Amino acid sequence: MKLLNKLLPVFLLSVSLTACSKSNVPAIAKDTTAALLQSSDWHITTLTVVPAQNGVTDVLASLPPCLQDNFFQFKARGIFNSDEGPTKCDPMIPQIDTGTWSYIESLKLLNFSSRGWQGKKLHITNITSNTISGTDDRVENGVAYVFSITLTRQ
Asked: How many CA atoms lie within 13 A of 89 on its CB side?
């Protein structure tokens, strides 16, 4: 998880999310992107960065297999789960890291946060029934990076 967090702060800029009580979370319409996110587990199938960061452009390929099999769950009522998948890099890390998520349709912005994925955001660029693609722009040490990610329905 630590390697993933080093390479994926990348994946996204910090954003503060606040927890919502069940009473103030609106119901999700069945034809929205939020409903699509909730309909399945999502696996990262593409994660790249331009320009290269520390000599790496294909971030996903540079990760160990125990991180490549992780997946996300976007549950009802804004519950986000990051699941370690079938293999774990560290047996002491919990199988599921739970946090919150939200999707702002007008901005096409997916926000999610948990202990291991603190304040991440993804600007959605393409959506199909099986994939969701997006980007995150980040400046580190004066260098502007664009991270591109594709999540695929499991």
From this structure: 13
CA distance 111 to 134: 12
* DSSP for 78-98, written as a single string: GEEEEE--S--S-TTS-SEEE
Note the pLDDT tens digit of each residue in 28-81: 445 589 999 999 999 999 999 999 999 999 999 999 999 999 999 999 999 999
Question: Is 130 buried (19+), middle (13-18) or exposed (0-12) by CB count in 10 A?
Answer: exposed
Residue 85 half-sphere exposure toward CB, CA atoms < 13 A: 18
Position 102: which residue type? Answer: S
The answer to whether the CB of 3 falls within 8 A of the CB of 63 is yes
* H or E, element range at 145: strand 143-153
Please tell me the pTM assigned to this model: 0.78
- Angstrom CA distances, 128 to 29, 37, 87, 131, stand at 17, 11, 28, 5
Query: For residue 9, how many other CB atoms are within 10 A of its CB?
Result: 18
Q: What is the largest CA-CA distance in the chain?
A: 47
Say which amino acid occupies 58: D
